[in-house]
Amino acid sequence: MQIGAVILFGFLIVALSTYQATVVPDQNREVEFLHNQEVQTDMVELSASVAATGRTGSAAPATVKLGTRYPSRTFFVNPPPASGRLDGSASR
C-alpha cells in the first residue's frame, strides 16, 4: 500500500514537471506573441508621433507598453514581471 502511494506520488511529480517544462512555455509564447503585436502597433504610433512633432513643432504624446504580464498559475511558475522603461525625454 505504501509503495503504491509513493509510486503514484512519483508519477504525479513527473506529470507536473512535464507540464511545467512543455505546456507553460507554450502558453507564455502565445502571450508574448500577442504582446509583440501590440508593441509593433505602439511603435508605428510612436513613429507617426515623432514625425508629427517634427512637422508641427508641438509635442505629440505616444505610449509604448514595454512589459507583458503572464496569467497567474496556482501550481506552476512564470517568469518574473518585465522591468525597465523607455525614456523619450530630450533636452533642447
What does this entry look like structurally?
With 92 residues, the chain is mostly helical. 60% of the residues lie in helices and 0% in strands. The protein is built from one helix and no strands. It has one helix spanning 2-56. The longest helix has 55 residues, at 2-56. The protein is rod-shaped, with a radius of gyration of 22 Å. The mean pLDDT is 88.
Question: How are the elements arranged and paired?
Answer:
Elements: H1 2-56
Write a short abstract of this structure.
The protein is mainly alpha-helical and about 90 residues long. About 60% of the residues lie in helices and about 0% in strands. The chain has one helix at about 1-55.
What's the gyration radius in Å?
22 Å
Compute the number of strand runs: 0
Strand content: under 5%
Instruction: Determine the mean pLDDT.
Output: 88
Gap between N and C termini, in Å?
78 Å
Keywords:
mainly alpha
